[in-house]
């Protein structure tokens, strides 16, 4: 057993035979390394992830010390068989392999599913080459002649197989690369492990071939132990385990090819030599190695194809794959005659997400929407990303046209749930165009037609779906022409302002006016905001129009205020578009208008809707700045949004405007007044004013007064009026108080 024992990776008993000084110094170095790794594994200065690898290496070093001492004692006592002392040395030596391998792998970077398969194929190549090398140097000679249970032969086989496992593990770590901040300690640990493997292979070869293991002094093992020791001194950064590799280790991509070349070179060497013993293991290793290479190439081919037909960010199909799927669907439709459909989807407000939160958050929103598509489309449907925030879904086979509508509605319903991305709560808002082909002749035009319908959906502003039709095509053309005409609306003085009175419920006296913009189109006549505001938001003209509305309203109401009796006042309410809220200079622009017109900011109220506040990182600071200058903020259509209470707790809101849908529910019964009563109580607790919208009957006004509402507007009092008509009402301003600012 003497020769076998000298083949251990740390053969201290053989080192004592060569030189006791070197053996003792090596043992001392191992103990120091063990102490340092234990300290690294328990250090409070390291994160839990950074401590985890050193727990494994500490156990491995402890086993190494035990094995070394066991071999030294076995040599001193002359135990050459499978006695207790030898078992104490051999078993820890074998256990070192899985423990040390676990420590190495815990410092390596994490991999995705496809990358793990590629790694497995690469490691099959390394495994085959390692088996060939160990078979040729150790396993084949050890097994030749029988007597496998003899200590020399069995020990050489077990140690060699352990070395093969460790070689494959080292190769795996090299190919995966280090986790961030683990590069230096992992490099040192790998260097020490590779050093042990080389020295161990030399010892095993000397033992099996009887060339005198004592020739290799234990001094050679000092360097590997020193490298492992230094791995505990170098401090890794946080989150070592499970992270993505920062950059690859030098030359690691050549490992499978090096293993392949080495394996076949070994076959050539064995072919030159005589004897049959190497061939069984060499052929088996070559088969494993070749299968690994072949499978790796198959995976690479599949990956290359996937890269060509898959969107790299979301993993959905790209335009090319969608065209391929469309051709296949057309062929199927010719055979079956069943209708097919396409959906084109666009995320509204995505540019603002990128501008306000950064492109990283925008990318994560796109990935989240891709997951929604995967969950909501049917099996066999093809979801694709066309580019930017535009997506498509191909429905290759339908039983009836309503199936396409059902898919669109499932997608829209899934978008209602808020997304938490990077600490920001965001909401997906989409528009969907649907096109259905009843025959194969119409199928190639499906994406284009769905695109037209999608733009029609965006123009509608309903955040819903629109089915392609001849009317949709005509509406798209008309909308494009209208957008072109809109550019001249402000320069040529085509915009008009109407004013709807806001009155005191108790007296009916005028206390304020809401400004409402109209467009006097040269050909189409007077257009309401629903006809042109969506186009203004898409083209960016909304900022120019909004500035004109604010300036004109302040000028006009400023003139009216000068006509009021002493001590009387009124305020003007101006609506802000969600797009205007995204302006980084909104507050400065509003204050500039107030300064130019000389209008008192305390008599200005800016109305915003709940949906406009979804992405409020830029909007909230702008509104707070305006509020510091005296401008008040009203939350329009209150109660119809999805997060009203959350907004009220953190946004600078002064006035709640009860939506007309809740006013319509007033019927003299407690149930009908439940929401209206809840809103007035909430406003009183939060020290906010209220305005009830959409009053159409005297009974509604009476019930709102009894509930505690002070101000209201609606057709019961007046429709939106031209400036001259509202001016005629000014003498009726009575003693009703103007809604005051909170705290005044």
Automatic annotation (TrEMBL):
The keyword Membrane applies. The keyword Membrane applies. Keywords: Membrane, Transmembrane, Transmembrane helix. PROSITE patterns: EAL (PS50883), GGDEF (PS50887). Residues 479-734 form the EAL domain. Pfam families: EAL, GGDEF. The chain crosses the membrane at residues 21-42, 54-75, 87-111, 123-143, 155-175, 187-209, 215-234, 254-271. It comes from the Bacteria. Residues 338-470 form the GGDEF domain. InterPro entries: Biofilm_reg_signaling, EAL_dom, EAL_sf, GGDEF_dom, Nucleotide_cyclase, Rev_trsase/Diguanyl_cyclase. NCBIfam families: GGDEF (TIGR00254). This is Bifunctional diguanylate cyclase/phosphodiesterase. It comes from Dactylosporangium vinaceum.
């Amino acid at each position: 057993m003497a020769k076998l024992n000298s083949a251990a990776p740390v053969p201290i008993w053989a080192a004592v035979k060569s030189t006791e000084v070197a053996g003792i110094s090596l043992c001392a170095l191992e103990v120091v390394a063990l102490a340092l790794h234990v300290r690294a594994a328990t250090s409070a200065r390291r994160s839990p992830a950074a401590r985890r690898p050193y727990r494994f290496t500490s156990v491995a070093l402890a086993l190494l010390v035990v094995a070394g001492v066991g071999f030294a004692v076995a040599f001193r006592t002359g135990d050459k068989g499978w006695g207790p002392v030898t078992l104490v040395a051999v078993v820890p030596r074998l256990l070192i392999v899985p423990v040390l391998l676990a420590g190495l792998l815990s410092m390596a970077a994490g991999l995705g599913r496809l990358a793990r398969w590629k790694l497995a194929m690469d490691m099959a190549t390394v495994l085959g080459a390692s088996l060939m090398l160990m078979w040729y140097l150790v396993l084949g000679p050890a097994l030749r002649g029988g007597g496998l249970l003899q200590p020399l032969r069995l020990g050489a086989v077990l140690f060699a197989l352990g070395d093969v496992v460790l070689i494959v593990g080292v190769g795996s770590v090299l190919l995966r690369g280090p986790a961030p901040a683990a590069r230096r300690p992992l490099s040192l640990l790998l260097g020490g492990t590779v050093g042990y493997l080389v020295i161990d292979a030399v010892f095993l070869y000397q033992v099996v071939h009887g060339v005198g293991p004592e020739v290799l002094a234990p001094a050679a093992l000092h360097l590997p132990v020193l490298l492992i020791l230094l791995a505990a001194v170098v401090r890794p950064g946080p989150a070592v385990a499970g992270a993505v590799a920062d950059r690859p280790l030098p030359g690691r991509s050549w490992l499978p090819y090096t293993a392949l070349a080495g394996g076949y070179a070994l076959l050539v060497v064995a072919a030159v030599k005589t004897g049959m013993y190497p061939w069984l293991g060499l052929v088996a290793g070559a088969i494993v190695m070749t299968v690994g290479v072949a499978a790796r190439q198959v995976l690479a081919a599949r990956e290359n194809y996937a890269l060509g037909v898959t969107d790299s960010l979301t993993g959905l199909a790209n335009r090319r794959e969608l065209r391929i799927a469309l051709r296949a669907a057309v062929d199927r439709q010719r055979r079956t005659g069943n209708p097919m459909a396409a959906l084109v989807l666009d995320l509204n407000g995505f540019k603002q997400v990128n501008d306000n939160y950064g492109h990283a958050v925008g990318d994560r929103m796109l990935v989240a929407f891709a997951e929604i598509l995967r969950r909501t489309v049917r099996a066999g449907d093809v979801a694709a990303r066309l580019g930017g925030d535009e997506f498509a879904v191909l429905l290759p086979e339908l039983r009836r046209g309503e199936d396409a509508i059902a898919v669109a509605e499932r997608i829209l319903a899934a978008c209602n749930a808020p997304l938490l991305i990077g600490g920001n709560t965001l909401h997906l808002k989409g528009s969907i165009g649907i096109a259905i082909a009843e025959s194969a002749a119409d199928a190639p035009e499906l994406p284009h037609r769905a695109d037209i319908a999608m733009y029609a959906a965006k123009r509608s502003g309903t955040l819903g779906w629109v089915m392609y039709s001849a009317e949709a095509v005509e509406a798209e053309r008309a909308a494009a022409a209208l957008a072109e005409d809109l550019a001249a609306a402000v320069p040529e003085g085509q915009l008009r302002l109407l004013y709807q009175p806001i009155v005191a419920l108790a007296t009916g006296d005028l206390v304020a006016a809401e400004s409402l913009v109209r467009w006097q189109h040269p050909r189409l006549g007077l257009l309401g905001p629903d006809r042109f505001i969506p186009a203004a938001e898409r083209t960016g003209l909304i900022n120019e129009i909004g500035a004109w509305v604010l300036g004109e309203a302040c000028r006009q109401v400023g003139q009216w205020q000068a006509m009021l009796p002493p001590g009387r006042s009124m305020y003007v309410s101006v609506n802000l578009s969600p797009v205007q809220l995204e302006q980084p200079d909104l507050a400065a622009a509003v204050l500039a208008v107030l300064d130019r017109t000389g209008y008192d900011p305390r008599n200005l109220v800016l109305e915003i809707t709940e949906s406009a506040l979804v992405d409020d990182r830029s909007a909230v600071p702008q509104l707070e700045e305006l509020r510091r200058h005296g401008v008040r903020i009203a939350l329009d259509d209150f109660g119809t949004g999805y997060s009203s209470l959350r907004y009220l707790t953190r946004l600078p809101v002064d006035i709640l405007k009860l939506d007309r849908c809740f006013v319509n529910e007033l019927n003299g019964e407690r149930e009908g007044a439940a929401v209206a009563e809840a809103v007035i109580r909430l406003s009183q607790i939060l020290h906010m004013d209220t305005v009830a919208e959409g009053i159409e009957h005297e009974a509604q006004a009476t019930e709102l007064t009894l509930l505690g509402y002070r101000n209201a507007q609606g057709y019961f009092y007046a429709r939106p009026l031209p400036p001259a008509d509202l001016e005629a009402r000014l003498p009726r301003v009575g003693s009703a108080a103007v809604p005051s600012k909170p705290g005044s």
